[in-house]
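Here is one chain, start to finish.
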Amino acid sequence: MADGNGLPMGALLTAGQRHESAFFTDVMDQVRVPKPVGRPKRRPEAVAGDRAYDSKENRKWCWKRNIESVIPARKGMHTGP
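Its structure:
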């Protein structure tokens, strides 16, 4: 997980044959968004990903936390929380 400037915000080491989208929520739980003053926020305002991250579970996870998901829908898939 990286911010808009490409700086890492969270990471998780997994086996090479595992698809990274299966660990979306685990990595997102590690993200801390720095603020000018005080503790970092525990969630970003939005998250962007490629079509591989389009799943009902990932979209629902973002929706429950009021995080905008900017993830294009896979062809033939229903999009909604």
